């Protein structure tokens, strides 16, 4: 049914939540904070809000990377060098390339089915490339569309236009966008005019605007 699959990476192929938690441990420790669930959730609340603002066009990725740790440590009246903290966090994150259960097998099965598969990510380019390389999945894709190189973030239709301009044979009927973010992945695909599959790994039941909803990656094989 679908010949071309656009796959988000963070929390779709990579277990970003686990990678993020591991990457934050040194950041917390170096600044005298415990690795508590409360501290982790406080950071995530700020980070998720800022990425949501990026999806709305209200913030740039650069602003997120320089401001999120400032805002987080203000909660504890701690002054930090946010650029230094970001470098520590980024270095740790680059080393965490855990895949979501079934992700590697999914990519292999899609290739066996003759599907063309491409990354479609808003993540930091260097981090995504390193993690794909370290986890041995980089070469399983037919190409990579990462917003930092494209110049536009999902859900901006210009992101999807770039994908279509660089994929031979792509049309509105044979491309499926798969991801875990409602605004960037699902609404972005819908507004561009292509079908989408919401990966509802956490059971949020928020995928009413998606063409399909799955809770297990292997279920994607039943759709394509």
From TrEMBL:
GO molecular function (one): (S)-2-haloacid dehalogenase activity
InterPro entries noted in UniProt: HAD-like_sf, HAD-SF_hydro_IA, HAD-SF_hydro_IA_YjjG/PynA, HAD_sf, PGP-like_dom2, Pyrimidine_5'-ntase_YjjG
SUPFAM superfamilies: HAD-like
Keyword Hydrolase: yes
Swiss-Prot/TrEMBL keywords: Hydrolase
E.C. number: 3.8.1.2
Pfam families per UniProt: Hydrolase
Source organism superkingdom: Bacteria
PANTHER family noted in UniProt: PTHR47478, PYRIMIDINE 5'-NUCLEOTIDASE YJJG
Hydrolase is among the record's keywords: yes
Name of the protein this chain belongs to: HAD superfamily hydrolase
Root EC class: hydrolase
Species per Swiss-Prot/TrEMBL record: Peptoniphilus indolicus ATCC 29427
